[in-house]
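Continuing the batch. This is chain 6 of the set; chains 1 through 5 are on the previous pages. Same settings as before, nothing changed between runs. Recording input and output for traceability.
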Amino acid sequence: MQALTFRRLYVLVFIEHARRELVHLNVTAHPTAAWVWRQLIAATPWGCAPRYLVRDRDAVYGRDSVRRARDLGIETLLTPIRAPKASAIAERLVGTLRRECLDRLIIVDEAHLRADLTEFERYDNDSRPHRTLALETPTPASPVTDGRIACLTSAHRRVGGGAGALPGSRSIGGRPEGRPAASLTKLDLPAYPLDPAGEDG
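Output for chain 6:
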């Protein structure tokens, strides 16, 4: 990726196949075999090494990267030449990063790109639903196991549209449907007064 200063920046991403979780990413202007190896170590802390590492045949990994990964208990699978479908999950991630993040920004420098990608990593892992996972996030949300259950009347459900509408809520007649007004307080969104004209007004 090219920055505003016309400096070319390189991004290395590790993604876990089962849950599509972004495990680790980093940015550099000068990729070397030593830098890539440090990223692999950072992505596989003690006791969390994957069984396989699927990667392309780029020379930046270094000649002895397969042997060194095997010493960590990781078997390296090299994709065939000019076969993007062999690493389809990574290729799809690159497309998502471009469409939803990088194509909409002017990157100033290496630190700026790293900050934006770190923010996208949090969003993708914790908030972005994936069709492959039946619209769950890569990091499963922990279910609420205790607390009060409150039943709100229909009057409490009515909130104004516009800036106060919650993202992802269905709107009927300019009002979000099926979301309690209490959610607006938790999100610190402005509360709108009830419409005095009545339910259909």
